Amino acid sequence: METRTSTDTVIAIDLDGTLTLTDTLHESAVVLFRDTPVNILFLPFWLLGGKAALKAKVADLVSLDVSTLPYNTALIDWLKEERATGKSIVLCTASNEHVAQAIADHLSIFDEVMASDCKTNNAGTNKRAALEAKYGAKGYDYAGNSEADLDVWAGARQAIVVNASDPVTKQAAQVATVSKVFQPQTVTLSNWLKMLRVHQWLKNLLLFVPLLAAHQMGNLQSLGTLILAFVSFSLCASAVYMANDLLDLESDRKHPRKRLRPFACAALPIKVGIMLAPSFAIASLLLGLVVSTAFTGWLLVYFLLTCAYSLCLKRLVLIDCLTLAGLYTVRIVAGAAAVAIALSFWLLAFSVFIFLSLAFVKRYAELQVQAEAGNSHAYGRGYAVTDAPLVQTLGITAGYAAVLVLALYLHGETVGTLYAQPVFIWFAVPLMLFWVSWVWLKAHRGQMHDDPIVFVIKDKSSLAVAALMAVSFLLATKGIGN
């Protein structure tokens, strides 16, 4: 860092919520939970020693990748311009000194770093006292974002308000001369829907498959039960997606598309996910108990399996795709349990193979994105980019195996007893052959979204195949002219 003269105007910059759009302590806590979950249990005991001690302990245990943090680029660009005029830029934060220094080294725009150590929490009155001891009363400008910064602004020559709410901005103007305001990013309904992954709730329609396969969709009682099961599974899925996004922050920020997820880009704060994820999980469990104990058992299997996937299984090559296929299939099993319908071997076999193919599609698409970005490996996954051709082969094979299972099932005697005109249901075989081939053709061309569900929703050919499949089953059930 450069040494500047004492006559330079000093601009002190807060870190959390100001320089970065996120909270580094929350980020560190998430990494701590991801890497060593048991340590989260000790957080309340570390806090007994004070906030400074807590931050120091977490900083000692966690190596935060500061290069991936969502920074306030508008503020940083302005600071560079101010520094070019001879002003001294000081990072003055309540974050731990190790985290603050790592960020200062990464950005290379600060002349000094003032931060919390293991004894003193450099926030509020402590921060103001430290700045006044160094630069004198009214001897610095200060950039902050929250009510905790009001006391510091009161002692500053000028206040720079960054990412603050309207009430905080008004309060800052009452205690100091506000020279510049950086407006906060707007939180939209789309941010909330993306956080909850509402479009992923479509996967939970698989709960209705056993009822449909048993030709009992007219059973209103069972239909009502499955609607409750659907809501329960959807709440559980949202809880898991929020948790997964929190645990995947670093890898998501290195991904061309996933970096735009609400937590990754800090459109929504991490603390929202930390509070909502367990709330949704509890609500899901309570609703599941209303459905049935058998359903609740499978709901817990789904929850535990998704947690295992988020924490470790997604990093294991091949195991990750088998787990994804299992998660799809568990939905069908849970739907059968909810309405006490016995599942056939054929339905389970078809489900496992088709969902395994979709899981491989997802991973293949991600490997293509990494290849285009010039990476040799998929960050946070067990695959090298060179594995893409093998993943493609495995996925196509699994897809065609699913079609084979369907053909063998349709050749059996059971079909004749379930359908009035079973000949029409044979159209499902060429339709499925086309769809599996189409999906992999699109993936091969690099036109597959890394989430196959999003692709299916938007792809006209996939929607047309689904419609034709429905027509073939309807004709097989009702026949022509009936």
Helix content: 55-70%
Tally of separate helices: 21
H/E series:
EHHHHEHEHEHEHEHHHHHHHHHHHHH
Q: State the CATH architecture of the largest domain.
A: 3-Layer(aba) Sandwich
CATH topology of the largest domain: the name is Rossmann fold
How many strands, what sense, and barrel or not for the largest sheet? 6 strands, parallel
Number of strands: 6
CATH superfamily name of the largest domain? HAD superfamily/HAD-like
Question: How is this structure best described in words?
Answer:
- The chain is an alpha/beta fold and 482 residues long.
- It has three domains: 173 residues, HAD superfamily/HAD-like (Rossmann fold); 157 residues, Tetracycline Repressor, domain 2; 138 residues.
- α8 links the parallel β5 and β6.
- α11 packs parallel to α14 and α16 packs parallel to α19.
Secondary structure topology:
Layout: E1 10-13, H1 24-35, H2 43-47, H3 51-61, H4 73-84, E2 88-96, H5 97-107, E3 112-116, H6 125-135, E4 141-144, H7 150-154, E5 158-162, H8 166-175, E6 178-182, H9 189-196, H10 209-213, H11 220-247, H12 249-253, H13 270-291, H14 293-311, H15 319-338, H16 345-372, H17 388-411, H18 414-418, H19 428-444, H20 452-458, H21 460-478
Helix pairs in contact: 1-3, 11-13, 11-14, 13-14, 14-15, 15-16, 16-17, 16-19, 17-19, 19-21
